[in-house]
Write a structure and sequence with these properties.
Blueprint (H helix, E strand, L loop, with lengths): L1 H13 L4 E5 L3 H7 L10 H17 L4 E5 L2 H11 L6 H14 L2 E3 L5 H28 L9 H19 L4 E8 L6 E10 L2 E4 L1 H17 L3 E8 L5 E9 L2 E4 L2 H8 L15 E3 L17
Parallel strand pairs: 1-2, 8-10
Antiparallel strand pairs: 2-3, 4-5, 4-7, 5-6, 7-8, 8-9
Helix pairs in contact: 6-7, 6-8, 7-8
Length: 296
Amino acid sequence: MAYTDHRTLRRVLRREIVGTIGVLTDEHDFRAMRRYDSFVFDDHATYLKHVEAVLRTRALQGGHTTVALFDPEEYADWCAEHGLDPDSHLSRTRFTAERAATGPAVPYDGRPLSDLMTTLVDEAVRRATWEYATMLLARLGPCASCGEDLGHAAFSRASRLVSRILDSAPPGDRHLVCSVSGPPESLVAVLHADDTDEGVHIDETEALEFTTVLAVGLATAGPGGLVMRTSTPGEPDRIHGWRIRSHGLIPLTAGEVFDAYCTDTETGEIIPPESNVDYCASPDLTDADPGPDHRH
């Protein structure tokens, strides 16, 4: 009887354990892992099929599983740093647990694995973009004339501009995209601002990433742009846009917004305009920004 009670209690405790699995999302990473004898899969599609089966089984049993991005190069470096054998499932388990706590990871919610991997890769790109943009701002250092931290000044101005854009926008759900071009990498960030009964809802992480990318554009004088699409039920979507220039945003005319949306950036060919969309002149935010400006 005591043995049965112990077994029952342990079964109850097992339901309290959460799990993590690291997923190889593409063929290149999968091939990199095949060099290890302890990695027994030889076909990426079969591997993903079994991963999804395990996730579904755990969900049916009431288990919670977090899906993390598994990067073979990072894994090899991590094993070398910690003196661990990379050809071991124990090492992979430790690496996955650590990366799930510090890197891109999403909870399994019953969606197809292909959809979940898209979300996971998008999260990894977002995180990498923010880290790179943050590094660029940090590298700016202090102003040679007054000693002010140029990265901090650019971020403060970007924060004020984002607030002003949202405050001046028409009612509705807003989708903002900020892009900054330049060597060696182009940066793109997205911000959603949704109307709710309690007011405008913004994801704080998205807002931080978006503001950081905009700050890079302001500090480096772009070239880049910012567009906002506002959606209201029963009305045409409204699209506004601005050019990113040194320490400011230059509003686009309705014609310029139309050209930006209806021209293929790679080929220069005209793209048919969307139906039920208004391409609008954008407000001038210069005079509305009362914050200090750094113009040395």
